[in-house]
Design goal:
Helix content is 37%, strand content 21%. It is of the alpha+beta class. The chain folds into 4 domains: 10-207, 2-Layer Sandwich (Heat Shock Protein 90), CATH 3.30.565; 242-373, Ribosomal Protein S5, domain 2 (2-Layer Sandwich), CATH 3.30.230; 407-496, Rossmann fold; 511-633, Heat shock protein 90, C-terminal domain (Four Helix Bundle (Hemerythrin (Met), subunit A), Up-down Bundle). The strands form 5 sheets. Strands 1-6-5-4-7-3-2-8-9 form a 9-stranded mixed β-sheet, with helices on one face. It has a 5-stranded mixed β-sheet with strand order 10-11-14-12-13, with helices on both faces. β15 (408-410) and β16 form a beta hairpin. The longest helix has 24 residues, at 350-373. The N and C termini lie far apart (109 Å). It binds adenosine-5'-diphosphate and magnesium ion.
């Protein structure tokens, strides 16, 4: 037997391993299984190169849990290690001292450490995060190799001796430490295997499972088919995920089936997929799916899984792909994304930059293709993808440049236009006297129905901008488009939405009467709503009163409510303007000889109607309005 002391200059590495990796203890299994995979791949490679003629045989990797002994074994039939190799790869490299160790695996800057946990391979030594004793038994594929046994109990001492092992490959045994006994649990290990090893390239067996097979031609008394149940090895992974295959080999159904495999708890089908398949100048494979997006984008992120040669790395791809792409689902597999660096560093990495712009381009290509080849179908999907596209345009300049071709605007009647088409369509009716194009929109087709109808009656078109992101999108488009502004339909009375060059309407009320009307309304406004009264000469066929929210103030308010950096507006509440049409017969009638009581009732009724059109009439005010309306009918 050979004994040795681990060469540690600055103390024991084990406390360091435990301390720094506290939150991600699970990854020990990923590391050990990927080592087993590596050993298998290497052996296969040697055989294919003709460097050895060993019989490959069954290459299944076995994971065995012994609850009583509190041990976990990872057994492979890969190339194994000779004594020299154990010495070199296990003893020397890993035991080269805490300092080197930290330097090698954790980057030079200590501050970076917390950021990289879980995103780099700590390798074989991560087993000491959960085990207080680890054994390796290994037999190299080489003809005269002797089996070796290596044991280490977590102190800087290890032992090496001959082993009784007749089968080629490596067997790692972990003895779980008391503080890691949570891993001595079948479900826990199964979950971890399914998470990290789901798509590893060789079959991984963990325990057994029962399998029922129909027995041909046999039925029970009631005529139901009979089944034969047998115990078969439980293979926990799919060694052959479709992202590795050529797109030409795959059908739409294969992509859908894979989506269900990835997200067994998602019931909605994806809208479409993108298969990414690049070998040069970097290596990138993957399948991205467009999900049906709901309006709230925050809760829908982190559905993309990142793999490195089929080893699961993370489902948080932040900083690896542009933010808007994190709304997509699917997998990305690339060995070219550096994993042993911090997140903030990733963004600056040239490979990551290239990969991320490649994905952006692919996504834009796909959208453009869908739009061009089947516009009708694309329009049907528009509602589900517009949040994504607008978010992309807002946050990614190169996507914005591409999106010109396939980003649509939709009006309140369900028609779709590209921005260019829409400009053309409304140019004539909606250019104001200064030559600016005024684009009208509604943020809620139901609530703003009255205003939408009024605008349409003037021959205007109204866009529907009803998702959370649209407040920002409108602002953004205004900056991008030349000579165009957006106005919500309730920003003015219909007649004034778009200022035209025409003679001013003459008021039927003189100055004295205007003041009177102002006073009638001003004194009757309920004290709990902020309404400013304005008497104006409008067309006599316009409504007698209208409640508007001037565009600028309303937008500031919307922004502050969304936390858009105008929080100082938040306390101000909404401000509305009650427009009173000085030329409407009901209004001019008020200043004539109408009796006091009737006038008060009329003014209250008009105010309530205006409040109602903005959804401001609630509670007691609403009850009073209903009662008053009934009285009027009587
Ligand atoms: P890495 O996998 O990044 O090289 P590890 O610490 O995981 O680092 O492993 C160190 C080395 O030990 C490997 O490169 C390999 O040579 C050897 N090794 C580890 N596990 C096995 C195994 N199951 N079979 C053969 N060799 C192994
Ligand atoms: Mg490794």
């Amino acid at each position: 037997m050979q004994k040795g002391t681990i060469n540690v200059q600055t103390g024991n590495i084990f406390p360091i391993i435990k301390k720094f990796l506290y939150s991600e203890h699970e990854i020990f299994l990923r590391e050990l299984v990927s080592n087993a995979m590596d050993a298998t791949t290497k052996l296969k490679k040697l055989v294919s190169l003709g460097q050895t003629d060993v019989e490959l045989g069954d290459l299944t990797i076995r994971v065995e849990l012994d609850i009583k002994k509190k041990t976990l074994k990872i057994i492979d039939r890969g190339l194994g290690m000779t004594e020299e190799e154990v010495q070199k790869y296990i003893n020397e490299i890993a035991f080269s001292g805490a300092e080197d160790f930290v330097k090698k695996y954790m980057g030079k800057d200590d501050k970076e450490i917390s950021g990289i946990i879980g995103h780099f391979g700590l390798g074989f030594y991560s087993s000491f995060m959960v085990a207080d004793k680890v054994e390796i038994k290994t037999l190299s594929y080489q003809p005269d190799a002797k089996a070796v046994k290596w044991t280490c109990d977590g102190s800087p001492d290890y032992t090496m001796s001959d082993a009784k092992k007749t089968e080629r490959g490596t067997e790692i045994t972990l003895h779980f430490a008391e503080d890691s006994i949570e891993f001595n649990d079948e479900h826990r290990i199964l979950d971890m295997l399914r998470k990290f090893c789901r798509f590893l390239p060789y079959p991984i067996q963990f325990g057994m499972e029962s399998k029922s097979e129909k027995i041909e031609g046999e039925t029970d008394e009631e005529g139901n088919p009979k089944y034969n149940t047998t115990e078969v090895p439980r293979i926990v992974n799919n060694p052959d995920p479709i992202w590795k295959k050529a797109p030409a080999e795959l059908k739409d159904e294969d992509y859908k089936a894979f989506y269900r495999e990835l997200y067994p708890f998602t019931f909605e089908e994806p809208l479409f997929h993108i298969h990414i398949n690049v070998d040069y100048p970097f290596n990138l494979n993957g399948i991205l799916y467009f999900p049906k997006l709901k309006k709230n984008i925050e809760v829908q992120k982190n559905k993309i899984q990142l793999y490195c040669n089929q080893v699961f790395v993370t489902d948080n791809v932040e900083n690896i792909v542009p933010d808007f792409l994190t709304l997509l689902h699917g997998v990305i597999d690339s060995p070219d994304i550096p994993l042993n660096v911090s997140r903030s560093y990733l963004q600056g990495d040239p490979n990551v930059k290239k990969i991320s712009s490649h994905i952006t381009k692919k996504v834009a290509d796909k959208l453009e293709e869908l739009f061009k080849t089947n516009r009708e179908d694309y329009e049907k999907k528009w509602d589900d993808i517009r949040v994504f596209i607008r978010y992309g345009m807002l946050t990614n300049e190169s996507f914005y440049e591409r999106a010109d071709k396939f980003a649509l605007l939709n009006d309140t009647d369900g028609n779709h236009f590209t921005v260019e088409e829409y400009r053309e369509k409304v140019k004539e009716a909606q250019t104001d006297k200064n030559g600016n194009l005024v684009l009208l929109y509604a943020s809620d087709a139901e609530e703003q129905h009255t205003y939408i109808s009024a605008a349409k009656a003037k021959g205007y078109s109204v866009l529907l901008m009803d998702s959370v992101i649209d407040v920002h999108f409108i602002d953004f488009l205004e900056r991008k488009l030349e000579k165009a502004t957006f106005k919500r339909v309730d920003a003015e009375m219909a007649d004034k939405l778009i200022e035209k060059d025409k003679a001013a309407v003459v008021s039927k009320l003189n100055e004295e009467e205007t003041k009177q009307v102002q006073e009638f309304f001003g004194s009757s406004i309920p004290s709990d709503v902020q309404v400013h009264v304005q008497v104006e000469a409008l067309a006599d066929d316009d409504a007698p009163v209208g409640m508007i929210q001037p565009e600028f103030l309303r937008r500031m308010n919307d922004m502050s409510q969304m936390g858009g950096g105008m929080e100082y507006m938040a306390g101000m509440g909404r401000s509305y303007t009650l427009l009173v049409n000085a030329n409407h017969p009901t209004i001019t009638g008020l200043v004539d000889t109408m009796d006091e009581e009737k006038r008060k009732a009329t003014v209250s009724q008009l105010i309530d109607l205006a409040l109602l059109s903005q959804g401001l009439l609630k509670g007691e005010k609403l009850s009073k309005f209903i009662q008053r309306s009934i009285d009027i009918i009587k």
